[in-house]
Specification:
CATH superfamily of chain A: Class I glutamine amidotransferase (GATase) domain
Number of helices of chain A: 7
Oligomer: homodimer
Number of strands of chain A: 11
Largest sheet of chain A: 7 strands, mixed
Radius of gyration of chain A: 16 Å
Shape of chain A: globular
Structural class of chain A: alpha/beta
CATH topology of chain A: Rossmann fold
Strand order of the largest sheet of chain A: 5-2-1-6-7-11-10
Number of domains of chain A: 1
């Protein structure tokens, strides 16, 4: 089983690493990080370099594609990259699952893959899915046909474990969860935007994001 | 505020990316990924290349150091790297916090930094802390003096948010949590080793880890 994860300048590292970290633990699964071309990309904050080991021209077949989200400028650049969007559409014709984390769903939308479908995305981008004739779902992970999309950033971990269960069965997925010690205990209960006050939303806008 | 995250061949990506993803969102925080020397490293599974932007010789001051864990072979190599361990001890003399995720605590231990202290680590490595005169703590995040250590892999996310609150206050940390949509909803409840059956532990041993 081959899973491709698309990388680009501006990507959010946890969006890509969250699902990778569980899926990479499954025996028989190969994960390749693919970019517009092979080479380094930087996260949106500029702090971390990740390597795309192959370019999209070299990857025309895969069992699954996962598209992570990123900072606004990075995602907007990808939305205008016809060569990337065309590649995703071609690849999607052969995948069993096409997936996104966070604002990666906007990129899938721009590739024409979410027309008439429900999809998750980062709460801060929820109004944009309609530009691609998709309907925002506030679920942490949304399945619509073969498309599996998640909410923002950390939600990709939950999406990844769900894919693990599909690929290898629930018992193995639970062993993966144990190997990652994924028994989350956030120090605060502030992760859901539906509970956020206007002051909290304003505080998010002041972050380095 | 400068936070260094140490990278090495065999590192577990989520161990490093978990705390980075929250801390990088704090205004005024700079994160540098540092390796034995500047250049690429690979995760233990070989699937992902991460870049160390600087080498240890270039980083003799920082406010915080975070050491992620990794696969057995990678961590064992670091345990014998006197130059790395010496660097950590020198750096530790000036940090306000020295931290680890997962088996990163074994590396801190080998650097002599956890003598007589309680520390967390990956459950699968809990017997090894005693080699460094440290006592295993089953807490998800353990504080002992200025040392903050977490349990395996995904626990670094919780450690990161705790550091965010220390650095920038609880309100800002909660905004960071919201920006990461960290409202975890694991599909299964299998992440705590104290609940694991012998069959489950045997299943972990068969994974690609």
């Amino acid at each position: 089983m081959l899973i491709l994860i698309y990388l680009y300048d501006g990507v959010t590292a946890l969006d890509a690493v969250g699902p990778y970290e569980s899926l990479s633990r499954l025996p028989g699964v190969e994960i390749r990080f693919v970019g517009r071309r092979a080479g380094p990309v930087r996260t949106g904050d500029g702090f971390l370099g990740l390597n795309a080991d192959t370019g999209i021209n070299d990857e025309m077949e895969a069992d699954m594609l996962i598209v992570p989200g990123g900072r606004r400028a990075g995602v907007q650049r990808e939305l205008g990259e016809e060569r990337v969007l065309g590649w995703m559409a071609v690849l999607d014709a052969v995948t069993t699952r096409t997936c996104s984390v966070c604002t990666g769903s906007l990129i899938l939308g721009a590739a024409g893959l979410l027309e008439g479908r429900r999809a998750s995305t980062h709460w801060g981008a929820r109004e944009y899915l309609s530009h691609f004739n998709a309907t925002y779902s506030a679920d942490r992970v949304t399945e619509d046909g073969k498309y599996l999309t998640s909410a923002g950033v950390s939600a990709g971990i939950d999406l990844g474990l769900r894919l693990c269960a599909e690929i290898a069965g629930r018992e193995v997925a639970e062993a993966v969860q144990l190997s990652m010690e994924y028994d989350p205990d956030p120090p605060f209960k502030a992760g859901n935007f539906r509970d956020a006050t206007p002051e909290r939303l304003a505080a998010v806008a002041k972050l380095n994001i």
